[in-house]
Structures are given as structure tokens and as C-alpha cells.
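Much of what follows relies on a compact textual record of a protein's fold. With that in mind, consider the following protein and its fold in C-alpha cell form.
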Amino acid sequence: MGVRTRVARSSVVLGLLAVFALGVTQPAPAAAQEEETLYAPWTLIAVSQGGPVEEVFDNAATDAVFAWNTTRGAFDTWRRGLPAGLNTLPRIADGQAVWVLSSQPHSITQAPFAGAQQIALVGGWTMVGWTGATTPAAAVAEILGAAIVFAYDGPTQAFQRYDANGLAILNSLAQVEQGAGLWVFRAAAGAATIPAAVPLIPDPAAATTGLAVSLPDRWASQATPDVYIAAETAGDLDAAQAPLGTRLIAERVPNAPLDPAAVAADFFAALDP
């Protein structure tokens, strides 16, 4: 590579270091897994990473799992110990809300749902997995286009309600926790987008698709400023294409803090043959 590339690389690295020195919040790494309590007997929870029910809920204290089927207007069920052919809920989808029946309190280990979740809601009641960040109930109702939102409080084994059209003093649901399962009532069918609590990791391969490729759809909902590195298809870099504050392509390392110099080095190495 020529002098221009080396100079540009130095400029980009210095620019990244300057941004961090100025105190711009760095992008959050892929979130670590966390344990969530499953209460006895009932918990209403959003399953962030789905799969076969017996793998998602592998603790013997989980007796049964129920998911609301809006098409049938009935629950699909999984009960421990039943032959597979008798269970109507073989798998749970990413972000799906389920009722969990437990013989005693225990925990489930989950990684937060990454990215925004697109959901369809029927006119009437829909069970929704809230994969976004902890949010005021009024904002959740607005996002989902819902008149009524119910959550279930595990420790007290009681419903909490938010009614958008009711008296505020009667609302017992002040905020919706990340990972909560919800019952949502809408007057008519529609779609909604649950904002991301954890951003998607941009695909490093996208760096070769063109100069300064923007990622507004994947990152615009994030409140945390992110720093990106611009790249030309030929592998030559021009710091002028990446002024401070510009949202451009970045290389991010899952499950590791973002170090700007390391990110830049990895990014350049990926571009070189």
C-alpha cells in the first residue's frame, strides 16, 4: 500500500482515539449471559434465544411451558415427561413470550435478544415478548399500539396492568422490564417494532461493499454514540471520509470491550490480502 493509505490509517486511528479521549460513549459489546429467576408456580417471560423447549428449559423444576397461538386462539403446550408427539409446542422462537410452570423457583440463563424485533399483533389479545430495554409502560403501550398491557409479577404471583385510557391512579404497571412476557390488547391487528436493547453486530464483510456504507436501519435506534471506520472497496482508506461523529462501517469484536486501536488494526488486517 502507498503513503496515502498509511497516512489515512494513522489519521483514522488518531481520530478514533480522539473520540474516546473526548468521552464519547463506546458501543456496548455483545451482552453477557444473565440468570433470570423462574418463580413457582408461574412466570411469564420472553425467551431471547429460542430452540427446542427441553433445551431452553432444561431444569427438572420446569414442569410445563405454554405459548399462545393467535391463529388457533389457544395455547400450544409442552409438558415434561410426555412423549414428543403429545406436546404441541416443540420449539420456542427467539423473542417469544411463554408461560412457565415450575415446581420450585430456579433460574434460566439467557443472552439478551440482539437487535430490534418485528412482531405482528392481532385485534384482541396477543402474548408478546418484550425484548427491548426496561421501558415505562406508557411508552411500551404506544410502541405496540396497545390500549391495555398486562405483565405478571413473579414474586407476588399477580398481574400488573397499564390501561392507556384508564385513570393513571389505577395503573399498577409502571414499567416493563427487559425480558418480560406481556399480554397486549389492541383494537385492531397491526405490526410493531420493539426497539433493540442490544445492537446487532455489523457484518465485517460489509466493509468491502463500498465506501462509507451507512447502517441507519441497524443502529439508528441506539442512544449510545458509535464510532465507525470508513473503507474503500479497493482497501485504501481516506480519513477525510470519516469525520468525527459520522456513523460508518465498523469492525466490532463480540464479547469484548471495544478498544479503538485494536479495532482499527483488526479492520485493516481484514482488508489486506
